[in-house]
From TrEMBL:
It comes from Macrostomum lignano. This is G-protein coupled receptors family 1 profile domain-containing protein. Residues 323-356 are annotated as: Disordered. GO terms for cellular component: plasma membrane. It comes from the Eukaryota. The chain crosses the membrane at residues 114-138, 150-176, 188-209, 230-250, 270-289, 360-388. Residues 324-338 have a biased composition (Polar residues). Residues 130-415 form the G-protein coupled receptors family 1 profile domain.
Length: 415
């Protein structure tokens, strides 16, 4: 190969190498530029996030400032009205002026507070003591230890727990005018209230089913009426009550408002809870007790006819024994009770049992009537208010005294 060719090849190789180095340098510079651009974009993103957070904080501060200014510009009466409307986006207990907070309980003067507190405390204590006696009586008296009374013990247990876990907090809230505890205590309070009230109502429903089967299928049900079956029925009552009360603890509720603790006003939950805890059991009890009363009336008429026939037969036998053969009996107005022989009429065991069942039916009927009158207005409010809120798109501004009256009317069934 000639020298000129070698020089040309070397020159070409050198040129290619320089081009490669230049391309590598350019690529490196491009990579550095892209990395710098990425870092710049990240910085911008961080700045934007910080800006958004700052904007949110500013909005929160602005809202707090606005509500503070709102409370400063309103008198205490207007602040109390806003608080009782439970509008969480506008006003809470924390926004209320310090000099207005004591006025939450100002609807009661000191003597009224003392009277109401003592009265409700005595009733709650009496409820606790009475239900303890019921449970002890069934546990200690062997004559009372039968399967049906297990349902009575379950009912007494739910009422006892209401007086211990629910009523003290309810009485305190009633006297203060606001809920003094936080969200955890509120969730516990509402869950216990719903659980125990539901179990009490469902226990009454189970008792009505038991009474119905005892009267309509006495022989068949007597074999099946074992403590185990009663225990399963009681377990079903408490399990259903738990299903009704647990959902709010897992988020099926509204945002907690400091100073207020009430039942969720969500329409879906209220339909689920009110129908499961009250309306369906009420329908079942009304149908069963209606059939029981019809059957009891038929049994009473049948017993009356049997009694009349029995007395007539006894009188005929008595006349046949006293008169000689062939004589005719004539009633005498001068006859005295001493002229008649002494006789005792014994009621058959079946009739005594029917009388006992009739008394039990009447007692449970009175309980059923009181239960319906006490709880029905409250559960009507519980379903009407959420429907109004959904239809109108705003919360119903109900007088809190009306709601509290019907709530305590329902709670009075435990007292």
């Amino acid at each position: 190969m000639s020298s000129s060719a070698i020089e040309f090849a070397a020159s070409a190789a050198s040129s290619i190498g320089q081009t490669a180095l230049s391309a590598a340098a350019t690529a490196s510079e491009s990579s550095v530029t892209r990395a710098a651009a990425a870092r710049a974009a990240l910085a911008v993103s961080s700045t934007s996030t910080a800006g958004a957070m700052a904007a949110m904080a500013a909005a929160v501060n602005a809202t707090a400032t606005a509500t503070t200014a709102l409370s400063a510009n309103l008198n205490c009466e207007d602040q109390l009205n806003l608080f009782r409307m439970k509008n969480i986006s506008v006003f809470t207990l924390h926004n209320m002026s310090d000099d207005c907070k004591p006025l939450l309980s100002s609807r009661y003067d000191i003597p009224a507070k003392v009277f109401i507190g003592l009265f409700l405390s005595i009733l709650a204590s009496g409820t606790c003591f009475g239900n303890v006696l019921v449970i002890m009586a069934v546990g200690l008296v062997k004559k009372l230890q039968n399967p049906s009374n297990l349902l009575i013990v379950s009912l007494a247990s739910s009422d006892l727990l209401v007086s211990v876990l629910v009523l003290p907090i309810a009485i305190m809230t009633q006297l203060l005018g606001y809920f003094p505890f936080g969200e955890v205590v509120c969730d516990f309070f509402i869950s216990c209230d719903v659980l125990l009230c539901s179990s009490s109502i469902l226990n009454l429903c189970a008792i009505s089913i038991d009474r119905y089967l005892v009267i309509t299928k006495p022989f068949e049900y007597a074999v099946k009426r074992t403590p185990t079956r009663m225990g399963l029925m009681i377990a079903a009552v408490w399990l259903l009550s738990a299903f009704i009360s647990i959902p709010p603890m897992f988020g099926w509720k509204e945002q907690f408002v400091p100073g207020y603790c009430g039942y969720p006003e969500l329409l879906g939950y209220q339909i689920y809870a009110t129908f499961g805890a009250f309306y369906l059991p009420l329908i079942i009890m009304l149908v069963l007790y209606g059939n029981i009363f019809k059957l009891a009336r038929k049994m009473a008429k049948a017993d009356e006819k049997q009694k009349v026939v029995h007395i007539k037969q006894e009188d005929k036998n008595l006349i046949d024994e006293q008169l000689p053969n062939g004589q005719t009996a004539r009633p005498s107005m001068q006859s005295s009770a001493s002229d008649l022989p002494k006789r005792s009429v014994r009621q058959p065991a079946s009739r005594k049992k029917n009388n006992s069942d009739s008394k039990a039916i009447k007692t449970l009927g009175v309980i059923m009537g009181c239960f319906t009158l006490c709880w029905l207005p409250f559960f009507i409010i519980q379903i009407v208010v959420p429907i109004y809120n959904v239809v109108q798109g705003e919360k119903l501004d109900m007088n809190p005294n009306v709601f509290e009256f019907f709530l305590w009317l329902g709670e009075s069934i435990f007292l």
